[in-house]
Amino acid sequence: MVIACPHALGLAIPLVVAISTSMTAKRGILIRDRRAFESAKDVNAVVFDKTGTLTEGKFGVTSVVSYIPEEKLLMLTASVEKNSEHIIARAIVEYAASKGIRPTSLAEFKAIPGKGVYARVDGREVYVGGPALLEELNIEINDEEVLKLQSQGKTVVFSIVDGKLAGAIALSDIIRSESYEAVKKLREMGVRTYILTGDAEEVARWAAKELGVDEYFAQVLPHEKAEKVQLLKKQGFTVAMVGDGINDAPALVNADVGIAIGAGTDVAIESADIILVKNDPRDVPVVIELSRKTYSKMYQNLSWAGGYNIFAIPPAAGILATYGLVLSPAIGALFMSLSTVIVAINSQTLRKYMPKAEEITITTEEEKKVEEVPAHAHHHYNH
Ligand code: ADP
Ligand code: MG
Prior knowledge:
This protein has about 375 residues and is of the alpha/beta class. About 45% of the residues lie in helices and about 20% in strands. The protein is elongated.
């Protein structure tokens, strides 16, 4: 009679999965794809979208460089931007409104993804957008003031009226305070970090330097974001992509682990394997660490349970009887229970890796943002 039945073996995996799932859920880390969570243990490159992921994604206009009367520039620009949902657009419309400038009606509006917007306003052709748009329109900027603003990390968008550069508007966004810690932690864990952004080279360089991020890819168009992820994978990295926007969706899908920040768009959330509900980039190193711990616990349990059974089954079956070694059914049963208990206790120790509650501080500001999620989908241009 074989009494050393592999009870513990059957528990080794599901017990750990159950505990790690409850831990991640409590922390606001939703795992949509368990296989991706498993890959997280091998992640050695993390690619962050900049705007809305590492930064707050709340822009405010800080200065206007104008080559035509400023009021005219703001009127034309705000009129086009009024039709755009982009956070940059909303900031510009709000700024113009604060200056008492009312947008006028327009025709032929179109959005150019990752570049900007276009419309006819008052019979003029108006383009508003970033460096990629200037490239497309073959317009060069050599304004010292603009370069200076960009090297300070400001996002600068340009207005092109009837083919001529009419002005530039600088906006600033704030780096989330949690981003500093997230990047630092990842580096300590030996993970390489990257910034991926549609913004200008200077702005990306500034943000990378500020945060201590290893490398950046700037002026990346939405469809190229996925290509950059592929490139890193080809170089042999196991890549996690962290993003919030529609633009990030293909990159999230292409990464080994796609992580969406909770306040992002539905499209980003749909494309991700893991969702950080608390909107905190510090949860990225937590995901990697928890994955590492979860899977090492599984291996430990398997060796405990497996090891016990390998040693206990033969004597229980009387194979070693000629050497005088027989595991009596009673002792076998005791050992069997013991190995199950060890597996159960070992699984529970996973809980001690959970960051303490006080480390999970969310400011009221962020809480507000989490609640505001649906506001992303609304169009509220006027205040
Ligand atoms: P990110 O990759 O940083 O999240 P996006 O891909 O949304 O940014 O946009 C990339 C760049 O395209 C912006 O930094 C900006 O220069 C330009 N852009 C996009 N939409 C607009 C808009 N509505 N108005 C002005 N500029 C825009
Ligand atoms: Mg973004």
